[in-house]
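Hey L., structure's done. Input below.
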Amino acid sequence: GRERSREPQSIMSEIQDLWDKGFKEITLLGQNVDSYLWYGGGLKKDFENATEMQKATAVDFDQLLEMVAVGFPKMRVRFSTSNPQDMHESVLHVIAKHPNICKHIHLPVQSGSNRILKEMNRLHSREEYMTLIDKIRTIIPDAAISQDMIAGFPTETEEDHQDTLSLMEYVKYNFGYMYSYSERPGTLAGRKMEDDVPEETKARRLQEIVDLQQKHAWFRSEEFIGKTVEVLVEKVSKKSTEEFSGRNSQSITVVFPKENYKIGDFVNVKINSCTSGTLKGEAVGYSEMN
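Output:
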């Protein structure tokens, strides 16, 4: 059905309830959070017919994000998912301004080829996506960016695939979710397009995407070495009962010796080594979020 936006006060009330119960992190979740718009309950497409008062008091996503960050300064705030064509610069400035908003943006692109993006009915071009990446890097220099990528979409050529790899080289994502195309009943592609890329070609292209992402994940992880990051302790590490595991603002897993800290603490951890998906370090004290 149509996108619907929840009343902001009900969102704030729910967060207050979670805060009272001891939760330390929330995620504002939507199929497309950037198209959030509350003006009294109507659909976004009808906003132009709203009254002047409704327009004047409307709340869009950057305002909602600011309300949450200011209302709950000790609560860590994440959001997902953004659509490139709807992500406004104003949201980036709100993220940059508030330390409790996580510096991670999941920005699905699916393909680096303009031709395939059009076939997918995506409402942005490769160039527009790259411009948005440049804005994120400028406004939030320490932001992590993650991707969704599909290999072997119907009609995808080797050149289209190379366009995807070159876009990945441009962005160097921190991590991503990568799949080979399979028909989904009811989608436009499922109805109108023949699944014409051979399975072995899809598998090879997907492997090339995964291998390149692995290389970039290492590159991005190594950037953290020597830095101190804030970690929300989530659990005991799978590999050692002597270590805690949590995530930093960029949504990267961090592992460090337990000492006297406990689950639910915000701890500053100095990073001294890494793998492609995990940072390792030593706690240097509580963060200001406690």
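The longest strand covers residues 228-236. The first helix runs from residue 8 to 20.

-- N.
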